[in-house]
Amino acid sequence: MSKALKFLIVAMLMTVSIFAKEPLKTYKEGQKLYVWAVNGMNFREEGKADGKVISLLPYGTEVEVMGQSTKDEYTYTLKSPNKSYYGEDSILPNPVTLNGYWLKVRVGDTTGYVFDKLLLQFEPYLGIISDNKQYFINYLVRNLKLQLVNDELKVTKETEYGDDYYYNSYKQLYLSKDSKNKLILDDSDGYDIDSVWHRGSITIGNMSFQEGLIFFTAIMKSSVKDYYYDYKEDTKFEYELDEVSNGASLNKIQNGVNFEWAYYPD
Fold first, then answer.
1. I want to staple 263 with a disulfide (CB 3.0 to 4.6 A). Which of 10, 187, 228, 256 is the partner?
2. pLDDT tier at 217 (50, 70, 90 boundaries)?
3. Quick check: helix, strand or coil at residue 127?
4. pTM (predicted TM-score)
C-alpha cells in the first residue's frame, strides 16, 4: 500500500454512529443540491419507501428542489458492521441509521422524490476514485472558501551518535472569511521513521453530524472498504487504523463538526 493511500485512509476516514431524530430541514424552491450516496440513490414517483422507482441517481447528480420535504419520516441504514471483519467472538457495534424525510426534486425534465439526508450542497468530490492528497486539500479549500493565512516551515536539528540530522516540519492554517471553516495541516519529512508524520484537522461550521458523516464517507470510499469503529451517539466517533496511533475522529462541536487525523508511517 502506498504512503499516499495510507494517508488518505486516515485523512478522509469516517465512521458510523446511531443518530437522534433531527427536525425537518428548510429548503428553498429552486435550490441546487447533489447526490452524495456513493452507490447512488433511488428516484421515486412518490415520497414513500415503496414508491415506484423512476431511476437510480448516480453519485454527484445535481437535483433541483421543488418544495419543502414531506412530514413522512424515513430511516436509512448507512452502515452495518461486517461480521467477518470483526471476528466471530467480537462484540459488534450497532448499525448506523439516518433519519430524514422525502423531498420533491427535479432531475432534467422529470420530477420525483428522494431521501433528503443523502443530498448535500457541496459539489461532488471527483477524487473519489483516487488517493490524491493534494486534490483532497484543494477540494476543501475551494468548497469551504478557505484562504491560506499562515504558512510556517521549521527546520529541526537532532544529534545521534555524533551525527547531525535535520528534518523539516510544515504547518499551514486556512480560514474562511467568517472563520467558521478552518483547515490545519501539520506534516514532517523527518530523517527517520520517528520524525515523519501527517496530521491535520478540518472544522466545518453549520454542518450537522449526519451531514459530516455522509460528506467524509463518500470522500474516503475508494480507500477503505471496511473498518473498525467506535462512537458516542451523535457526538463523536473514533477510528483506529493500527496499534501505532494512526487514526481519525469526528466530533460534534457547538456550531458544526471537527474532523481530525493522524498518520505515522510504518
1. 10
2. confident
3. helix
4. 0.79
**What phi and psi, each to the nearest 5 degrees, are found at residue 184?**
-120, 130
- All residues at 6 or more sequence positions from 213 whose CB lies less than 8 Å from its CB, including other chains: 14, 15, 16, 17, 78, 96, 237, 250
Separation of CA 16 from chain center: 11
Q: Which residues contact 49 (CB under 8 A, 6 or more apart)?
A: 74
Of 237, 216, 199, 257, nearest in space to 120 by CA: 216
- Amino acid letter, residue 24: L
Q: Convert the pLDDT of each residue in 154-184 to its tens digit.
A: 887 777 777 777 778 889 999 999 999 999 9
Which DSSP string do the residues of 204-251 spell out, in sequence order? Answer: EET--HHHHHHHHHHHHTTT-S----EEETTTEEEEE-SSSS-EEEEE
**What's the rounded Cα separation, in Å, for the pair 28 and 16?**
29
Residues 6+ apart with CB under 8 A from 127: 135, 136, 139, 219
The burial class, CB within 10 Å (0-12 / 13-18 / 19+), for 39 is exposed
